[in-house]
Design a protein that fits this description.
Length: 298
């Protein structure tokens, strides 16, 4: 069995660390790997780094360049160059646990899933503000092993190539500057009848970048997540569904506003998470009425 590991990169030296962690994966004897790295930098920043590291690996590593500044097109480039029965996704700022891929595959086989989402464990540089660590704003929601979901991300993921081909799935270039192209991709797989599950045993680690350790980044990210959620789930929904969606969000937004006000005197570590949830709801409502969205990759 061949598994294709896809990774997009943009001006990150850490891509070498990610490749090194892939080289250290423990896998069943019947599994072979190939790695597809797509560089989204027009100057080809990662080419030398990737090719030098590839010489030290027993796994085939294929370097490609997609100069159009669009993360969705870069992901499509990686997909188009896969040969595996399964396709795995990992980010260029992550380090895979040695059993990451084996656990994803085991979960897929156990639950007969078309896609499996592993965990991402956040780690922090030494200069991280204490309120960020205490508030848990970078921690992902807890899940159970085999739990079914309706969408997911490409940061720790295994997908059945047969399902991708059957439903002719591609990442939507309209999300190329905003992000959310992965959530849209997997939601469409779910809508086609694909089975999407979580794995609690498979994980990668990611050190939060220094430029993200501030409230301004977190607020922009929360709003963007809300906006893209509405875009891929509600864009084609009937008006009555949109109204019910809006009413539910408005009520939640009001409740969260009160929670933030109550927690405000107790410091940022207490009010940060509900504030971000509030901004997420605002983003979801805003996207019902406007196409002006936050661009994280502009």
């Amino acid at each position: 069995m061949l598994i294709s590991i896809c990774m997009c990169t943009y001006q990150r030296d850490h891509v070498v660390n990610t490749l090194q962690s892939i080289a250290g994966l423990r896998l069943p004897d019947y599994v072979n790997l190939e790695v597809i790295v797509v560089d989204n930098d027009e100057q080809g920043y990662a080419e030398k780094l990737v090719k030098e590291q590839a010489k030290r690996m027993d796994i085939p590593v294929h370097y490609h360049q997609k100069i159009a500044k669009n993360i969705a097109l870069a992901r499509n480039c990686s997909l188009n160059n896969t040969q595996g029965e399964w396709v795995a996704f990992i980010d260029d700022d992550e380090v895979a646990d040695p059993d990451w891929l084996a656990q994803l595959l085991s979960t897929a086989q156990t639950y007969q899933a078309d896609a499996v989402f592993g965990r991402v464990k956040s780690t922090y540089p030494s200069h991280t503000p204490q309120w960020i660590i205490e508030s848990g704003v970078f921690e992902r929601p807890a899940v159970t092993n085999g739990q079914e979901v309706t969408s997911g991300a490409t940061n720790s993921t295994l997908v059945n190539q047969a399902a991708i081909n059957k439903y002719q799935l591609k990442f939507d270039a309209n999300y190329g500057l905003t992000g959310g192209e992965d959530a849209d991709f997997f939601y469409r797989l779910y809508q086609h009848g694909g089975k999407l599950v979580c794995s609690t045993e498979a994980f990668v680690s990611e050190e939060v970048a220094s430029n993200r350790l501030n409230i301004n980044y977190l607020l922009r990210r929360a709003r963007r997540i809300g906006e893209t959620y509405t875009r891929y789930r509600m864009q084609q929904a009937p008006l009555v569904n949109k109204f019910a969606y809006f009413s539910d969000l408005l009520l939640k937004l009001i409740v969260l506003l009160f929670i933030v006000l109550i927690k405000l005197p107790f410091g940022q570590s207490k009010y940060a998470k509900p504030l971000l949830q509030l901004v997420d709801k605002y983003g979801k409502i805003k996207a019902l009425f406007s196409t002006d969205t936050v661009k994280l990759y502009s």
